[in-house]
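Name: Aminoglycoside phosphotransferase
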Amino acid sequence: MDGIEVVVAHSERVTLRVGDVFLKVDADPARLDAEAAAMAAAPIPTAPILWRQPSVIALGALPGTALGVLGEPSPASPAAWAAAGAAIRTLHDTPPPGRRGRNAGARVRADLETECGLLVAGGLLPAALVERNRAVAEAAFRPATPLFTHGDLQITHVFTENDQVTGVLDWSEAGQGDPMFDLATLTLGHEDRLGDVLSGYGPADPVAIRAWWSLRSLLNVRWLADHGFDPFAPGCEVDVLRARM
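Structure predicted for Aminoglycoside phosphotransferase:
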């Protein structure tokens, strides 16, 4: 063991790596309870739970490597991305847990309007960029049957080896949600990989996926900037928004 690595740290939760053990510390113990329940119900590989305490969960490392990171080209093959798509389809086809997940409803619409106003008023983004992406995001507000969704399916959370999915991390947002949100989150900043994902996933709604790219990015820019992350980094959220222009 060479030390302790801080994987993620903000006011809600911290993830530390100690050797091959990942420790997640959450300010809301109920969120860890929901995460453990979602992992137990998921029909795809997840990290092994080593032990639990009220505000801490210890997870074992997964074999393989993540599909990539936001802002950098993915080293994974098209077959690995297709395998990720197939795993997501398996998840979406499984009866969902009772917990609500990510959906585009009235509350999200209200949050979006607020964020768009603040982004422009604070001079963080140009009005034309915000208005264009607000229009694209509208397609996410459509009728959609809630399915078993991961809720935070970033490419750093999906591990593959030999073009097979070895596990998916971070189920803290899992619940009944819009399946296109999962696909959009996985391909955010890697739009060129959407075709590979859908070759494994099957029929989907590309318009809704593009809408979620804009919606997620608009909602996240200020939060990321306020929590020590850089949404302006190449390939990240602001570049995703600029691509819609």
